[in-house]
């Protein structure tokens, strides 16, 4: 038998060497880089409906467009 999730459950995880806090709540999931306030948040209904894939694709495309081009090739 499983235990009903009635309050937040927080755990620290490591992703690509960075520490994150994962919060599992009755409303959904939240993933925030340790020491920061903003992160990724998704409701259970959005996760189940497939909105997650669309939101992730949009977020990734915005991240790519906002990053500056590499200056390594010009540093001779």
Lay out the secondary structure:
Layout: E1 9-15, E2 18-24, E3 28-33, E4 39-43, H1 44-49, H2 51-66
Antiparallel strand pairs: 1-2, 2-3, 3-4
Entry summary:
This protein is of the alpha+beta class and about 80 residues long. The protein is built from 2 helices and 4 strands.
Specify Rg, calculated over alpha carbons. Answer: 17 Å
Largest sheet: 4 strands, antiparallel
Overall body shape: flat
Mean pLDDT: 81
The helix content, as a percent range, equals 25-40%
Number of domains: 1
Beta-strand content estimate = 25-35%
| Sequence of secondary-structure elements | EEEEHH
Q: What is the CA-CA span between the terminal residues?
A: 63 Å
Count, helices: 2
Structural class: alpha+beta
Find the count of extended strands (DSSP E, 2+ residues): 4
- What is the topology, as strand order, of the major beta sheet? 1-2-3-4
Residue stretches low in confidence (pLDDT < 50, at least 5 long) are none
Descriptive account of the structure:
The mean pLDDT is 81. It is flat and about 45 Å long. It has one domain (9-64). The chain is an alpha+beta fold and 76 residues long. The chain has helices at residues 44-49, 51-66; strands spanning 9-15, 18-24, 28-33, 39-43.
Task: Considering the chains and any ligands shown, give keywords for the structure.
76 residues, alpha+beta, four-stranded antiparallel β-sheet, 2 helices, flat
């Amino acid at each position: 038998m499983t235990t009903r999730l009635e309050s937040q459950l927080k755990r620290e995880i490591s992703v690509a060497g960075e520490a994150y806090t994962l919060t599992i709540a009755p409303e959904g999931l939240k993933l925030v880089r340790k020491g920061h306030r903003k992160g990724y948040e998704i409701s259970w209904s959005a996760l189940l409906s497939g909105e997650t894939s669309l939101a992730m694709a949009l977020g990734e495309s915005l991240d790519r467009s906002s990053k500056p081009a590499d200056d390594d090739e010009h540093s001779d």
